């Protein structure tokens, strides 16, 4: 029997989906590689996968719409896209991090996917073990990239895929292990001694963002949202509920800000690039980040998928020169 596919509009614990015998498909992950031009949009991310589903280019057997979490536009576009999907489920993260509430949400998701939703998650134990192993390798890859031992562009493309593990956790685990073993097979163009920057905010919709950063002399050592995909997990409903209740994008901005301060402080960064998506509510957080984070910050706003626009390339190059000059003056 063919494994059914559950499309997800934002982060949904993949452990729950795979343990129920389904495969996960993050409908966002293919958008940067496309040349989508949605006719009616606020956010090009959500509008692009909405149209892809409505036109049949993406055909999930079920759609899990994250109605309370990191993306507000996904709720409206998810309801629209759901008209072309056989079954739809709405998943809510607790804004206050209530573990009991999130466990109830996971149980309801399990019931929707066709399991009893109680206790441990044994139906597909190999999948759960594989996911945990893949995430452990992903954390090592994240560390290697931070240490300059892995290409930032290839690393980002792997880390962003932890939202759905590319539909096949065992195969994805092997892929990440190989990438980790490859080391410096594709040396970052920024080279040793380049200014170290953290990329915060939603992932860029531009498919060459990290390569352009390297060309601009910036070494990206942290990607905020993919790191969330890596660090969260568990092998039982209780473990999953406790872990995912700390998903920072679904919590108050001060919770997320405190997490960023701790994490960025570990990575010896020289600056921050804050990427936001046109019409995304996260744009409103930019002023707070500028007030609270101690590092120089460049704010970049994207819109439609594709290659990096020339004006953003120039701004990244100027930021690289600024940080390079600051590092030289401080040495």
Textual characterization of the structure:
The protein has 331 residues and is α/β, with parallel strands linked by helices. It folds into two domains: 5-113, Rossmann fold; 186-330, Rossmann fold. It contains 13 helices and eight strands. A four-stranded parallel beta sheet has the order 2-1-3-4, sandwiched between helices. Helix 12 (286-292) links the parallel strand 7 and strand 8. Helix 2 (44-54) packs parallel to helix 3 (73-81) and helix 4 packs across helix 10 (237-244). The longest helix has 22 residues, at 125-146. It is globular. Residues 116-124 and 327-331 have low confidence and may be disordered.
Q: CATH fold name of the largest domain, please?
A: Rossmann fold
Order of helices and strands: EHEHEHEHHHHEHEHHHEHEH
Mean pLDDT across all residues, rounded?
90
The helix content is 40-55%
Per CATH, which architecture of the largest domain? 3-Layer(aba) Sandwich
Distance between the termini: 62 Å
| Order of neighbouring strands in the sheet with most strands | 2-1-3-4
Low-confidence stretches: 116-124, 327-331
- Count up the helices: 13
What count of structural domains? 2
